[in-house]
């Protein structure tokens, strides 16, 4: 009999079975019990789990095609467990796809998938009750429209085009898997990608950038502002900077480690560190200019003094990281964004997002005659296409 356990998702109990692919790699198979998470339902859910463990083989394939199970504590309620066929509800298939992707992507990406599927795609299509074989392109277009418009009466705000595109990406990916497995004849999401709002990032002019650097001097935000405006580093790259990646003899440093945060269900923000950047182009080595070298060496000595002063109270978990506070706690990416916003307001500086310091870096390089190819390498961008609109806007403004 298969090993398995109960898991709560979307306010309901699911049986999670420990299965494996035919090639040997293990994966969790999620089977809905259709029982809501509430007092008195835990034991019936456990009984369904035991029954499901005997209904599937080690490959997650249902031994009998359709089995009806009646909950002993709720005689009126019955549920039909259907194997993965075109008769499976599309909403339930999205949960299956989600469990499959958990072992395929990193935790940050998976957290984004969970938010899209569990909080938006699943509830909408579960209410419609459409099966995989019934799903048509028009249903997806209606869903995208619903997300863009929102539902103010029920407290649901409208979503940005880029957010809806993420939902579409998940749906398209899931239906591709369904098509490969022969569950559907074609991908209903094909050529249904919703339009996005054309976004043009803001940026600082040279005098604004210099004033921002001057005012940030001596604050905890100084490191972030300097690396953002001069090197165009992303938040995750700034927080991920380590002393071992700096060569003070050759005056070079390498961006090879990042720190991001995400929401894990049932927990607060979780930090995720990895020796990997956003893409291959993002792993790059840059020159360390004298101003940065002096500030970093001074910071290194300051951290030694903090370790001496705080002794056992100093957090040694993040030893080796550059961007830590007095007691050794790592400065989080979200802290940079929120503090930067308050910093601009306090000093009467024009509002831009922290990510716009990266845009500012690009515009300053362009102003000084640096080629697009060189800017691409400096910023660690895989392709310049997404940046061309921004660059052209800067050129237009510079001529006005």
UniProtKB/TrEMBL annotation:
A matching Pfam family: Phage_int_SAM_3
Residue ranges occupied by any Core-binding (CB) domain in the UniProt entry: 88-179
Keyword match Nucleotide-binding: no
Domain Tyr recombinase: from-to ranges: 198-400
Alphabetical GO biological process terms: DNA integration; DNA recombination
This protein's UniProt keywords: DNA integration, DNA recombination, DNA-binding
Keyword hit for Transcription regulation: no
Top-level lineage group: Bacteria
Listed GO MF terms: DNA binding
Function per UniProt: Site-specific tyrosine recombinase, which acts by catalyzing the cutting and rejoining of the recombining DNA molecules.
Similarity comment text for this entry: Belongs to the 'phage' integrase family.
Record's protein name: Site-specific recombinase XerD
């Amino acid at each position: 009999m298969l090993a398995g356990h109960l898991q709560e998702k979307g306010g309901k109990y699911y049986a999670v079975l420990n299965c494996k692919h035919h090639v040997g790699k293990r994966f969790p198979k999620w089977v809905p019990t259709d029982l809501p998470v509430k007092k008195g339902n835990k034991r019936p859910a456990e009984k369904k789990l035991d029954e499901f463990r005997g209904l599937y083989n080690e490959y997650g394939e249902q031994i009998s095609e359709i089995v009806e199970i009646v909950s002993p504590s709720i005689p009126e309620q019955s549920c039909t467990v259907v194997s993965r066929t075109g008769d499976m509800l599309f909403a339930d298939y999205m949960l299956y796809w989600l469990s499959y992707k958990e072992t395929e992507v990193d935790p940050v990406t998976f957290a984004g998938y969970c938010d899209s599927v569990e909080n938006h795609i699943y509830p909408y299509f579960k209410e419609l009750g459409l099966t995989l074989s019934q799903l048509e392109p028009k249903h997806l277009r209606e869903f995208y429209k619903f997300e863009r418009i929102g539902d103010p009466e029920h407290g649901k705000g409208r979503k940005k085009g880029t957010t809806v595109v993420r939902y579409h990406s998940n749906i398209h990916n899931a239906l591709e898997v369904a098509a490969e497995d022969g569950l559907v004849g074609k991908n209903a999401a094909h050529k249904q990608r919703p339009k996005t709002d054309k976004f043009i990032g803001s940026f600082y002019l040279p005098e604004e950038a210099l004033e921002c650097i001057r005012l940030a001097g001596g604050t905890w935000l100084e490191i972030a502002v300097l690396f953002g405006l001069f090197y165009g580093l992303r938040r995750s790259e700034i927080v991920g900077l380590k002393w071992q990646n700096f060569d003070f003899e050759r005056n070079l440093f390498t961006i090879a480690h990042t720190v991001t945060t995400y929401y894990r269900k049932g927990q607060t923000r979780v930090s995720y560190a990895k020796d990997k950047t956003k893409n291959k182009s993002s792993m790059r080595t840059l020159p360390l200019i004298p101003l940065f070298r002096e500030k970093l060496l001074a910071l290194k000595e300051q951290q030694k003094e903090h370790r001496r002063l705080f002794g056992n109270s100093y957090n040694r978990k993040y030893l080796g990281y550059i961007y830590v506070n007095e007691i050794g706690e790592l400065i989080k990416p979200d802290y940079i964004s929120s503090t930067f916003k308050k910093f601009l307001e306090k000093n009467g500086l024009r509002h831009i997002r922290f990510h716009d310091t990266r845009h500012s870096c690009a515009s300053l390089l362009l102003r000084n005659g640096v080629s697009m190819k060189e800017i691409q390498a400096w910023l660690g961008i895989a392709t310049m296409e997404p940046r061309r609109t921004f660059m052209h806007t800067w050129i237009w403004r510079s001529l006005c």
